[in-house]
Amino acid sequence: MSFDNTSMNDRAGVSVYSDPDAIPEYGRRWSWMEVDLDAIAHNIREYRKLVGDSVKVLAVVKANAYGHGAVRVSRCALASGASYLGVATVDEGIDLRKADIDAPILLLSEPPEDSIPLLLRYRIMPSVYTRHFADAYSRYADLFGVKGYYHLAINSGMNRIGVPYNEVVGFVRQLHNDGSLELAGVFTHFATADEKETSDFSVQEKRFIDAITDLQNAGFETGLVHAANTAAGIRFPNVRFDMVRFGISMYGLHASEQTKGLIDLRPAMSIHARITNVQTIDPGEGVSYGFAFRSNHGSVICTLPIGYADGLPRVLSNRMEVIMDGKKHHQVGSICMDQCMFEVDDGGRRLSPDEYPEIGDEVVIVGSQGDCCIALDDLAETAGTINYEIACGFDSRVPKIYPLSVE
Ligand SMILES: *Cc1c(COP(=O)(O)O)cnc(C)c1O
Questions:
Q1: Which residue numbers in the chain have pLDDT < 70?
Q2: Which residue, among 289, 390, 271, has the nearest Cα to 340 in the 3D structure?
């Protein structure tokens, strides 16, 4: 196949790349995520203002930074006032080190013992809460002649991970005899920090404080004490301790109704697409699999190249809207794996030529255009889930663009 660059340019009016592999992602598929790093920097500064200078901020960048891109978000977070990073998997930590990120990295659970040499090579601190893992960690640290830094996870009531709150002294005493391990921090995690009712939260808070006191009374240096996720850190100054773990709010999303009004957050993620097909259909015609939508008076149907494999939950079929020309339009028909359709409702009259949508017109799926806004929270609410899950879902396939970044 040969590329005649001049004639391609003439015919299609598009920019021509002499190397087809250099064609950027937005030239390959018309759907994308924009990540506003300025918003992330703003959210961290707001959080910093709230917690004060004596409290460190750990930026939680697990799950590819809740879908926003872990390397870019980590660099932005560290430049804006965070000093620690939190990941969920060994590979997430390795990716950050390979991008030359040097900040301390905490793995928020215990990985398989087989991965311990990687933890040591890439300076990823594990959370520790079982004897078995701790023993293996200390053996490898000995073998490599390095210190095995770790954070002790305490189970104060969530019953997910952690040493039971009333057994921490015995646990740490056993590890402490082993010179190759070094306690860098002690933490717990709250199950109900985002709930209106706070009595369960208070029980966990008290158990954690008792456990820390026990450790200190037994003569142990605890390292960094931390407990608060977004909701706890924003709502309850008492549990900020030495460090707060800042996840969902860094991305500009609220953990629940309870944090709204307490901090000024700017959402960082928006989702966009361009129309790939436009057609006028007759009354009674169906749209998409199963004809879950039929047009009653005939309408203009536009197709977008984004579907449930891109993170747009299929359960939103016929229940969500998109924004075009600063106005909301109903998505219609079942959301497909890679595409979905929306209707420009003409109310039975003909659209005027300048109302008529065209292939290539930009549509906002999450975000704002003019005065119109569709929040990730709106999608989450309709889908019956939380904004965390919707954000993570968009990580799967659409390319990420960082429009305001000056790296
Ligand atoms: C995910 C996670 C966080 C962050 O929670 P947000 O509600 O997103 O702020 C904090 N701590 C631990 C242990 C986590 O797993």
A1: 1-15, 348, 405-407
A2: 289
At 298 the pLDDT is: 79
Residue nearest (by alpha carbon) to ligand 1 atom 15:
108
For residue 322 and ligand 1, the question of a CB distance below 6 A is answered with no
Distance CA 397, CA 341 (A): 19
DSSP 321-370: EEEETTEEEEEES---SS-EEEEE--TTSPPPTTTS--TT-EEEEEEEET
Residue type, 311: G
Task: List all residues 6 or more positions away from 289 whose beta carbon is below 8 Å from its beta carbon.
Answer: 333, 334, 336
CA 245 from centroid of its chain's CA atoms: 14
Tokens, residue 158? 């969530």
**pLDDT for 254-285, tens place per residue?**
999 999 999 999 999 999 999 999 999 999 99
Q: What global pTM score does this model have? A: 0.94
C-beta of 344 in contact with ligand 1 (< 6 A) = no
The confidence score (pLDDT) of residue 28 equals: 92
Q: Which atom of ligand 1 is nearest to the CA of 248?
A: 8
Helix axes 90-98, 70-79, angle to 10 degrees: 70
Nearest in space to 395 (alpha carbons), one of 218, 271, 226: 271
- Cβ pair 372, 327 in contact under 8 A: yes
Amino acid identity of residue 278, one-letter, is: V
- The amino acid that residue 214 corresponds to is D
β-bridge partners, 56: 243
Ligand 1 atom at minimal distance to the Cα of residue 109: 13
pLDDT value of position 15: 66
Task: Work out the number of other CB atoms within 10 angstroms of the CB of residue 228.
Answer: 28
Q: Both tokens of residue 373?
A: 């806004």
